[in-house]
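This section describes the prediction task in plain terms. A model, or a person checking by hand, is given the sequence of a single protein chain and must write out its three-dimensional structure as a string of tokens. No templates, partner chains or ligands are provided. The sample shown here is typical of the held-out split.
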Amino acid sequence: MVLFAVIDIVGSIPIIISLKEKSGKIKSLRASIIAGVVLIVFLFIGEEILKLIGINVYEFAVAGSFILFFIALEMILGITLFKQREGNLEMATIFPIAFPIVAGPGSLTSLLSLRAEYELENIIVAIFVNVIIVFIVLRTSGSLQRFLGKNGIAIIEKIFGVILLAIAVKLFASNIQELFN
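The expected answer:
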């Protein structure tokens, strides 16, 4: 449940629909698998990777909060900061869906803290369950778009943009404090 709340794939539906409109098509299975692999790899060697490149978890989370902040600004203000390159429309499947929306700084840092509290097998099961949920949401995003319509999507996008902005600010504030302590 902790990972489900942090990943917040349901809250990311407006972002997914917006990215789908910009890039054409998002490969649900590919995004889910990439996110799952990133989560599992980070579970095992994430802290060592960060240490190897001289970054601690708090710095990683602050950097991730900036990404979430800019995605939220796009949603709220209707501006485009994330631009697809011509000829590389599949990039949205990997960035920002697989990373940082699903396997983002919040979920990756949560994995490190969950590892201290829970058995490794339980965390792996939680990752797989969440990846399946992510796949279902990504796969059905087109149906949700048709059901909600353009106005419904616009309203939800603004609401969740503000929520995502608040999450970005919270992630920034809590981790910037740790950097200075």
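For orientation: Residues 2-180 form one domain.
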